[in-house]
Amino acid sequence: MLSERRLEVLRAIVQDYVGTEEPVGSKALTERHRLGVSPATVRNDMAVLEEEGYIAQPHTSAGRIPTDKGYRLFVDKLAGVKPLSTPERRAIQNFLDGAVDLDDVVGRTVRLLAQLTRQVAVVQYPSLTRSTVRHVELLSLAPARLMLVLITDTGRVEQRLVDCQIPFSETSLADLRARLNSRVVGRRFTDVPQLVQDLPESFEPEDRATVSTVLATLLETLVEEAEERLVIGGTANLTRFGHDFPLTIRPVLEALEEHVVLLKLLGEANESGMAVRIGHENAYEGLNSTSVVSVGYGSGGETVAKMGVVGPTRMDYPGTMGAVRAVARYVGQILAES
Length: 338
Description:
This protein has 338 residues and is of the alpha+beta class. It is built from twelve helices and ten strands. The chain has helices at 4-20, 26-32, 39-51, 68-78, 86-97, 102-117, 170-184, 192-196, 205-222, 250-257, 259-267, 317-337; strands at 55-56, 65-66, 120-124, 133-142, 145-152, 157-163, 230-233, 274-278, 290-299, 302-312. The strands form three sheets. The chain has a five-stranded antiparallel sheet with strand order 7-3-10-9-8, with helices on both faces. A hairpin with a 4-residue loop joins strand 5 and strand 6. Helix 1 (4-20) packs across helix 4, helix 2 (26-32) packs across helix 3 (39-51) and helix 5 packs parallel to helix 12 (317-337). It is elongated. The two termini are 49 Å apart.
């Protein structure tokens, strides 16, 4: 275990390196921070930190920079989540309150996160499997063609066309709409198949085939697609950190194009808590020079999706964590009120 003084030295090194982008020396540390010890003592503490793998010397006779292990200790023990200022919170609320639908909420969230953190923002659409049914609408487009509209508690809207073998009357359509909603509204998607399995039998024989076709379309809609929807924004922000990527930024950009990789990274966030994956903790090699800060969001205490940011390991962790958490809370409030 490191002593409190050495933890303070590590904290100072991380803060200075993130702020200045320059390797940090003992003289600069004693001048900028009230460590209460001499430069010689700080040099000794830095030697121990380097031996333990928390900091490294990038060049001969240069200062020291944090390693992935050093950043990890900083995040776990030394960094509090930085609260947003009142103007920042007000700006978030005003920006997100203007959203008109779920697509707008997600789009605004991505832009806001990228602006606040100056990193790459990633937002996952609310998962269907974690959602509940708000309403099922059935519309007649032609005597034998219907439109099924599924609306979730998170505001997600799914539309499907249903081609029937025989015409379906408006009376039967209204009857099916009423019975269907009475069974599924407010219920989890995973419960719906069992709730509607005997519904066709309650209709007249000539209508049962059409009812079964409608239910089959509904159940297909409820099945989560293999690849969840993601929205990414702020990729251009990475160009500001060219020197933070040892060889080239290309592997990072290629990784960001792989939505399956990003979904897996976001999935590592706890249901309601925050996850920070630093450098080589990211299993995907292309992201070994980055950190990923992610958190779940949702309404009513239930997580329906994840959001986060990707940036270089030389990241303002307290500020980034605070921004991601604050935006997730506001989005959750919007979903709860929608």
